[in-house]
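Re: Re: token formats

Sure, here are both.
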Amino acid sequence: MDSDLPFSQACENNKAPILTVLQQAFAGCSQVLEVGSGTGQHALHFAKHLPYLNWQASDQSVYLTALAERIRRAALPNLPVPLQLDICADPAPAIAADGLFTANTLHIMPWPVVQHFFSRLNELTAARASLCIYGPFNYNGQFSSASNQAFDASLKSRDPAMGIRDSEKVIELARQQGFHLKQDQPMPANNRFLWFTQNLQG
């Protein structure tokens, strides 16, 4: 019934494996903020299968109309109207998010925007929050697969500022904001799931 809305096959392919990890990572959470919700397919799937969570979708204004329409049609009680959130321009949502989720965003953001996103973590989340990031990552400066190397080249052909990020640099950005890596889970299609928890002692 949603054939008129933007659709991501990758979201369909990865939503079940991601959910398996989220069921553990967000077990103690009640309010999740998703940064970069895109088509909204993840938001619908996770809100449906994690009914104890209030799942707040968000994205830049250019994606908001279609995202809002998908969410409206779903009519899930724990999936409110999505919020506009440009990580570089908009204030943090007025919600106490004890979970933050983002998928396939860090390789789209220019590196300075990635750094800015991490610098705002404590503004975007409540105390003792869980941070979950899904996507491809490099390790020790090396691509983890030939397909990831080809994907990185494709990204850079679109915009030289895009590219697969080094996991060590991402983990360090999180550490600087008091979040430490709890789990680095391999996922299908040479992606990873990074689960961070907040260390209030820094």
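Second one below.
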Amino acid sequence: MFQSRIHGRGGQGVVTGAEMLSVAGFMEGRHAQAFPSFGSERTGAPVVAFCRIDDKEIRLREPIQDPDCVILQDPTLLRLSDVTSGLRPDGYLIVNTTKTFDDLHLRALVEKLPPGHAVIVPATELALKHVRRAAPNAALLGAFAALTGLVHFDSVLRAIQQAFPGKVGDANGAAAREAYDLVRTQENASHERAALA
């Protein structure tokens, strides 16, 4: 079972992001579940959503304590709580920011993960470019597909278009595609550096 935990703020599409990820899993013939955990349901309040994907029926219902992947939609949450708590030693980390891991004081954590398992994606900027809204969820799903390989990008794209039909879906799909390509480029550069080392 692959378990993902998404941290963000109300209004950023955290819950919708988890739901779209689960739909992408369903589209590939797997079992999936997505559910939120709200502290206070107002815009800007911290929100956590969870997604599990497995090849067999999922019976668990509790929040995810030891995620295989943490997606951080809003890096300001790092000042409020330990959003990376429980991240598995072989896990993945995706952060929506234009800053570096050093700027975010995440370098020590990133160095404990396998090489290439942590990426920075300017998902809000991509959303503003394509969707004209600061909703980074679709772009981060594109990054997730590229980084983890758990779901194919085509499944993510179909899930996005199902959630947002028409032009809005196309725009979110374009943001997801650019994030996917960005992460793939980062991965290729990382592999080349490792080969030279």
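The CA atoms of residues 4 and 69 lie 5 Å apart. DSSP finds six helices and six strands in the chain.
- S.
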